[in-house]
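Quick check before the chapter quiz. The format below is the same one you will see on the exam, so make sure you can read both the input and the output lines.
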Amino acid sequence: MTLAAAKPLSAEAIRRALADFQIAADDHQIALIQRYTGILLHWNEKLNLTAIRDPLDILHRHFCESMYGGVAVEVFGRLADIGSGAGFPGVPLKILRPELELAADALILGHGSLEQGRVLALENRTGVHHGLVEEFLE
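Here is the expected output.
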């Protein structure tokens, strides 16, 4: 599926999917999921980051399952997501728990990682470390 063929996720579809996992999200978190999904679809065409290409499948398999981990297990403080590639589970956990300080090692290379950082830095949702995890842990 190409980016042009992918239908953007509606806020209602995201809320329903998250509710299936007993996850509540505010409008800002929904918007971040929508934007990040768009970035993922864009870069996936160039770098083959995930075999999952359907936006609804990305929502369920990547966002909901990753965020469920943040609901099932209390996650706080610092999170080092080693070898995260496309940003999972770190990015969804950061969206769910904006207070987390996230170090995502090996996020999308080049322009994609810059875009990811911008999405997550919106409205004071900062604390994304790009670089060596060893630097983050010091």
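If your answer matched, good. Residues 27-47 form the longest helix (21 residues).
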